[in-house]
Amino acid sequence: MTASIIDGKAFAEKVRAGVAADVSALKAKHGVTPGLAVVIVGEDPASQVYVKNKVKQTADTGMNSFHFELPADTSEADLLARVEALNADPAVNGILVQLPLPKQIDEAKVIAAIDPAKDVDGFHVVNSGLLATGGRGLVPCTPLGCLLMLQDALGDLSGLKAVVVGRSNIVGKPMAQLLLDANCTVTIAHSRTKDLPGEVKAADIVVAAVGRPEMIKGDWIKPGATVIDVGINRIAAPEKGEGKTRLVGDVAYDEAATVAGRITPVPGGVGPMTIACLLRNTVTATCRQHRLDPKAI
Ligand SMILES: Nc1nc(=O)c2c([nH]1)NC[C@@H]1CN(c3ccc(C(=O)N[C@@H](CCC(=O)O)C(=O)O)cc3)C=[N+]21
Questions:
Q1: What is the CA(100)–ligand 1 centre distance, in A?
Q2: Exposure string for 99-112, b = 16+ CB within 10 A, e = fewer
């Protein structure tokens, strides 16, 4: 079998078109322009592409984009003050503080300081708590993007066996919650799981979010399964020339693609959907802050 490719880039374009339509309706009918603030502390070269794409796409959908680059030695107090100012600014509907933060800053404190209504990353405990208890908060962008791709590819997910490999607060745990809400039977596997290949082999849906290049092998995959690869790992690519690198996922793609029914590529899979869902969450947050029904803007 050769897996069909789930084109995250094309799907993200569709999501963004929907966001752009909502933004223009919000402007025309309600005089509201959604605003997204992105705060970056220090210069992490790996995140530069991500940031550039994010800022450009925010503007392309017609939203206001506020961009703050703070020096790497910014104090925790200064960052918290910046977050407070954004919380209080009515032109800012969504706030994203790029992670990881430099070591002098406590990430948990910063996330806790963000107004949950503006927490478009969905990382605040109020939002993770709402997700865990079936409420309507803001849902983390990467798992939301994965769910949208799965539902687009498979339709109703009820009764399917899903394995989520990885248990981070940002991807693994919220992903498992979303799949559970979609009526999957969910296993969360991790570095201490006894028989990881066996757990993966039992699953109709595999979501790989471990952050280890090509760790999940082709012969672990159940024939016909749907594979969502969250990993974005930069590895050396001497075949491209000295000092060159390339991006790979957490799944050994070439092997897995001969076994799986459907698979997301890296790049061009989950990554673009993450950004599209960030924009979608910003519209959702804007609507709620203005007491508007997102389905009837
Ligand atoms: N508060 C916070 N929220 C985040 O969502 C967050 C963060 N911090 N810190 C950094 C990570 C990383 N991340 C990416 C999203 C999209 C791509 C993406 O679109 N990647 C392209 C390729 C990019 C390339 O070519 O290098 C793709 O997969 O096709 C990458 C990385 C969000 N993050």
A1: 12
A2: eebbeebeeeebbb
